[in-house]
Amino acid sequence: MKITRRTAIAAVAALGVTAMPAFAQYPTKPITAIVPFAAGGPTDVVTRLVTEHMSRTLGQQIIVENIGGAGGTIGMSRAAAAEPDGYTIAVGNMGTQSAAPALYPNLKYDPAKSFTQISIVNFTPQTIVSKKDLPPKDLKEMLAYLKANSEKMNYGHAGVGSISYVSGFVFNSQFGFKPALVAYKGTGPALNDLVGGQIDYMVDQSLNVIPQITAGTIKAYAVAHPERIAALPNVPTTKELGVDFIFSAWNAMVAPKGLPKDIQDKLVDALSKAMDDPAIIKRYEQLGSTAPKGADRGPAGLQKLVEKEVARITPVLKAAAAK
């Protein structure tokens, strides 16, 4: 066959197209971000905040899909089973990515092995709160009061596997408290009953309780964090009060296992740019949250956190036969 200049150019062009990875132009269509909880909750709020910014970086819309149920494990199971093509990502939290293995024996995913890790999205320290008329005036009095009275008291949480459930379980187990556990279908109903005095206390994400603390409808004893947070400047930390209880909730962005490295890198970069945006930093402060920094940020930081938190939380939950 006679090779002309035109056929040679065409052959080279075809070779170039063939050699180019199919994902080189990623993304070429909208991306779905699964949030395994109802719209309006803490994970949903933070996901919508960062994915809107990521959409601008990536040049494609990221559509948030809320798939709730079973403490968030239904949505995360869906994400783990999706095609690893970059068009399905998910944002789980401490419950789905560390406590779930101890709470759900038939869990369809392994938080440390079933996903391509993208990054921690934010940290939110827990705040120890109670109904307004509970007698203790400060944290030391609160701990003494619970030691004497916890078996006659109620601890409210947003359902098995929720952040308030897990953090409360760790808090109560650490100090030997044995309150009745009252489960609700979400944080909103639990906080309504705390404000109304139907339950006695909670340990929940700061961003959930900031409005009630500010309004004076519930009592705040301490933020379980080394440093005070900007949104609650008058609430002391457990560290400054000399109480050994540090506990932060966190959200994490993941993709199905097997995601090509090039796509992972693009998602990591887009999320990092979002977390460095001054407007998002300010919004995080208003929510009582912080973005991961240094070695905490990125796939390696998230992988380390998941493994550490599974090892920390699983024995506590299993020792109590939590189901």
* Overall outline: globular
- Give the rounded overall mean pLDDT: 91
- Sheet with the most strands, sense and barrel status: 7 strands, mixed
What is Rg? 23 Å
User: Helicity range of the residues?
Assistant: 40-55%
Total number of strands: 9
Strand content: 15-25%
CATH classification, class level of the largest domain: Alpha Beta
CATH H level of the largest domain: which superfamily? Answer: Bordetella uptake gene, domain 1
What is the total number of structural domains? 2
Unreliable sequence segments: 1-23
H-E string: HEHEHEHEHEHEHEHEEHHH
CATH architecture of the largest domain: 3-Layer(aba) Sandwich
Q: What would you call the quaternary organization?
A: single chain
Based on secondary structure, the structural category is alpha/beta
CATH fold-level label of the largest domain = D-Maltodextrin-Binding Protein, domain 2
- In whole angstroms, the N-to-C terminal distance is 73 Å
Provide a count of the helices.
Answer: 11
Structural notes for this entry:
- By secondary structure, the chain is of the alpha/beta class.
- It has eleven helices and nine strands.
- Strands 1, 2, 3, 4, 7, 8 and 9 form a seven-stranded mixed sheet that branches. Strands 5-6 form a two-stranded parallel sheet.
- The protein is globular and about 60 Å long.
- Residues 1-23 have low confidence and may be disordered.
Short description:
The chain has 323 residues and is α/β, with parallel strands linked by helices. The chain contains eleven helices and nine strands.
List the helices and strands and how they pair.
Layout: H1 5-19, E1 31-35, H2 42-58, E2 62-66, H3 73-81, E3 88-93, H4 94-103, E4 115-131, H5 139-149, E5 154-157, H6 163-175, E6 180-183, H7 187-196, E7 201-205, H8 206-215, E8 218-223, E9 248-256, H9 261-276, H10 278-286, H11 299-319
Parallel strand pairs: 1-2, 1-3, 5-6
Antiparallel strand pairs: 3-9, 4-7, 4-8, 4-9
Helix pairs in contact: 2-9, 4-11
